[in-house]
Amino acid sequence: MAVLLYYPRVNPPTEILQQALLYWDGIATVVPHDPDDYAAAVQPELTQLRDRGLYTPLFFMRQVMDVLDGPGRREGLNSRVLLEEIQRMAEGPDRPRLPSPPEAYLYRSKFSEWVEAALRHYGLAEDTPDDRRYAVPKEVQQMVVGVLAREWGTPPVGLLRPLH
Description:
Layout: E1 3-6, H1 14-23, E2 26-30, H2 35-41, H3 44-51, E3 55-60, H4 62-66, H5 77-91, E4 104-107, H6 113-121, E5 126-127, E6 133-136, H7 138-152, E7 160-162
Parallel strand pairs: 1-2, 2-3
Antiparallel strand pairs: 3-7, 4-6, 5-6
């Protein structure tokens, strides 16, 4: 069965969802591991598709997230690159600003805790009322997800699992 993996967002835009269902056997997205975060993040439309066998929610096993344990604990290349980019964005002349209302979020259960701590330290993340996610400028979301996607792009077999 050929399934389109839409990444990085949980909920694909309607046009992507329609195209995926026209040309593929189904669609999958990476979702937060925490069940409450999952319930809050996934649109009802995707839940209906999941019930019909056309949508597969996926989550990364903790081992994948632990690869980015953070500077000081495991100084991997991607951890250093991510921290340097956060710092560069925060200290640069074109520092990203968080619009009101926020346009981009990062779910806490999709990322290692040090990522949120670094973003907060540099003033690039703010709390949201639901406490499951934090708001970030869109440029920050794209950068963080891009670095993590590189790390997750070739995980060892068995680290990406369907969420049932």
